[in-house]
Amino acid sequence: MLKCKRKKNEMIRNYFYLIVGLLCILFAVTHTLNGTTTTLALLDNVEIENNAKVAFTYVWHIIGIENFVFGIALLIMAFRKNQLKVKFAAWLIIFILVMRWIVITFFTLSNNNGDLKQLIPDTIAIFVVIILLLLGTRVKEKISKE
Predict the structure, then answer these.
(1) What is the pTM of this model?
(2) Phi-psi bin for 48: left (phi > 0), alpha (psi -120 to 50), beta?
(3) Is the Cα dihedral 24, 28, 31, 33 positive or negative?
(4) CB proximity list for 135: less than 8 A, separation 6 or greater
(5) 3-state SS track over the chain
(6) pLDDT digits (tens, 9 = 90+) for 91-113
(7) List of residues 6+ apart from 139 with CB closer than 8 A
(8) Mind listing the pLDDT tens digit for each residue in 71-87?
(9) Which residues contact 13 (CB under 8 A, 6 or more apart)?
(10) 121 touches 108 (CB < 8 A)
């Protein structure tokens, strides 16, 4: 009988990156589904120029695909043998997420009469991902005994 044996180089090297990768893919799917069923559907009922509708739609989908790309990159990073080589990518994603949160916060507070309740879901999601990524950057290399 053949036994299925995992090779050492196929092991998960960073569970934090794995979890964040899966979360980012989930966020991509939910962001896109939420947009197509609610937010973007509202554009058909509003009198605005077609170019504005198109711009809003593709910007919405850019955010979804950006989350998806982050997720795929992080899944790949989770399996990389040399974690030092992927640490820069993790820091870059952290920086992008912090900038995203700043933009979301600024525009929400300046255009929504300072309603902080609307920021809670995005803030929680972004900061959970950032914290997990920061923990992932602290994972030490395991020295293999071969």
Answers:
(1) 0.83
(2) beta
(3) negative
(4) 16
(5) CCCCCCCHHHCCCCHHHHHHHHHHHHHHHHHHHHHHHHHHHHHHHCCCCHHHHHHHHHHHHHHHHHHHHHHHHHHHHHHCCCHHHCHHHHHHHHHHHHHHHHHHHHHHHHHCCCCHHHHHHHHHHHHHHHHHHHHHHCCCCCCCCC
(6) 999 999 999 999 999 988 888 77
(7) 13, 14, 16, 83
(8) 999 999 999 988 888 99
(9) 78, 79, 80, 81, 83, 139, 142
(10) no
In this structure, what token pair is assigned to residue 125? Answer: 């999601």
End-to-end CA, the chain: 26
Tokens, residue 37 = 């069923």
Yes or no: say if 75 and 46 are a contact pair by the CB < 8 Å rule.
Answer: no
**Rounded distance between C-alpha atoms, residue 19 and residue 127, angstroms:** 14
The neighbour count for residue 25, using CB atoms within 10 Å, is: 18
C-alpha span between 34 and 31 (Å, rounded): 5
